[in-house]
Automatic annotation (TrEMBL):
Taxonomic source organism: Litorihabitans aurantiacus
Biological process, per Gene Ontology: tyrosine biosynthetic process
Start and end residues of each Prephenate/arogenate dehydrogenase domain: 7-293
The protein, known as: Prephenate dehydrogenase
The protein's Enzyme Commission number: 1.3.1.12
């Protein structure tokens, strides 16, 4: 597919985000130059096909027209400012997970005379709502941004042409661009990204001293809640302190909910499960969660679609999953999503296929006829 972004694009910070962008642009034929303070990080990104090292760019090669800064939030404003000065014809964006603090730091540089208004006009902050719990180019993926929201955060002095170029980049990488102010963005991500990270980490932290016997019982619920607890502590520390006030406000609300639930359970623990108010408080916590989760957009960012789920027991041996997928394909059913759960002690996995409701019965019957063990919900 030919891309509308014109290169060369300079990617500063060739970790997960930078290398993913570099890979997608390189595959699309856009020349990418890579820069990173870590020699091993930039060499790895180059080896994986994310671009050419800046040091290897010939002196008469064209200079970058777009700079994508993908470094940790605490160093982002310095790197953006340097890029604006070093590349006077380039538009500069960053992909950091916080936006207001970075813009404020850049505006302070303008106030102090270290950056001009004209230079700052070429900067448009941004934030792809795409990532994972692993860092570095080794975890990069050209499809990382596909179908994900990419927030464009222009400031009052941003040039319209600069905004258009960053929007084009987001679209070229398969994202769905949308626009917000810096504070509006930070308030939103405190709720949908930063607090979920903190809560996942805190739940996982309770496991550090858990008895092995308890961990052996871990099921999909724990795995769902703790996937992002494997995230990089340094990166997330910078994100959380960079968005301190909105994250604190949201955490205080969660703390109030926890305090109320703990008090109700305390009553039940001391006076028995039917103690007045305990049942209502416990049910209310879960019911409000039901209402909240129903509002989370589903696949492709649209409204959550009610897929039917068909769970199949798959032997834990080479090629079995491939054989299952092939059978589903032969039955003419599209798999919308797939999750797997492994029984710790058994050489069998439970594979749950999400399919459109109309196809569920046909799929169940077809798999059954072909000898697959379909687990009744
Ligand atoms: N990880 C995610 O899920 C995710 C998602 C969206 C946005 N972001 C944002 O993207 C940015 C990068 O995150 P990541 O997950 O790719 O991190 P990463 O650790 O994988 O990559 C960051 C890279 O920046 C390099 N670096 C650090 N300081 C530098 C400097 N001064 N100059 C040049 N290179 C420097 C590091 O060596 C590293 O290779 C962060 O601001 C983060 O908030 C992350
Ligand atoms: O899915 C994940 O692993 C993520 O952590 C991605 C996620 C998110 O919260 O959605 C995390 C931080 C980023 O700033 C953007 C995306």
């Amino acid at each position: 597919m030919s891309l509308s972004t014109t290169g060369p694009v300079l990617v500063v910070g060739s970790g997960l985000l930078g290398a993913s962008a570099g890979l997608a642009l390189s595959i699309g034929g856009v020349p990418v130059q890579l820069q990173d303070t870590s020699p091993s990080a930039r060499a790895l990104a180059r080896d994986l096909g994310a671009g050419t090292l800046v040091d290897d760019v010939a002196p008469d090669d064209p200079t970058p027209t777009l700079v994508v800064v993908a470094v940790p939030p605490d160093v982002t404003s310095d790197v953006v400012a340097r890029a604006l000065r070093q590349h006077p014809d380039a538009v500069v964006t960053d992909v950091a997970s916080v936006k207001a603090v970075i813009l404020a730091e850049l505006q302070e540089m303008v106030a102090a005379g270290g950056l001009s208004d004209a230079e700052l006009a070429r900067y448009v902050g941004s934030h792809p709502m795409a990532g994972r719990e692993r860092s570095g180019a080794a975890a990069a993926d050209a499809d990382l941004f596909h179908s994900r929201p990419w927030v464009l955060v222009p400031h009052a002095g941003s040039d319209a042409g600069a905004l258009a170029r960053v929007r084009t980049l987001a679209i070229d990488l398969g994202s769905v661009p949308l626009q917000m102010g810096a504070q509006e963005h930070d308030d939103a991500v405190a709720l949908v990204s930063h607090v979920p990270q903190v809560l996942s980490s805190l739940v996982a932290a309770r496991l550090v001293e858990a008895p092995d016997g308890a961990l052996a019982l871990a099921g999909q619920g724990l795995r769902d809640v703790t996937r992002i607890a494997a995230s990089d502590p340094r990166l997330w520390a910078a994100i959380l302190v960079g968005n301190a006030a909105p994250v604190r406000d949201q955490l205080a609300l969660v703390r109030d909910d926890l305090t109320a639930l703990v008090a109700a359970l305390d009553g039940a623990a001391q006076q028995g499960p039917l103690t007045p108010g305990a049942m209502a408080a416990a049910s209310d916590a879960v019911r409000r969660g039901n209402a909240g989760v129903a509002r989370v957009p589903g696949k492709h960012g649209g409204a959550r679609r009610a897929y039917a789920e068909v769970t199949v027991l798959v032997p834990d041996s080479t090629g079995e999953l491939g054989r299952l997928f092939a059978t589903v394909g032969e039955l003419g059913v599209n798999i919308e999503d797939v999750t797997m759960e492994h029984a710790t002690q058994h050489r069998v996995g439970m594979t749950t296929l999400a399919v459109v409701p109309d196809a569920a019965e046909r799929l169940t019957q077809g798999l059954d006829e072909r000898g697959w063990r379909v687990v009744q919900a």
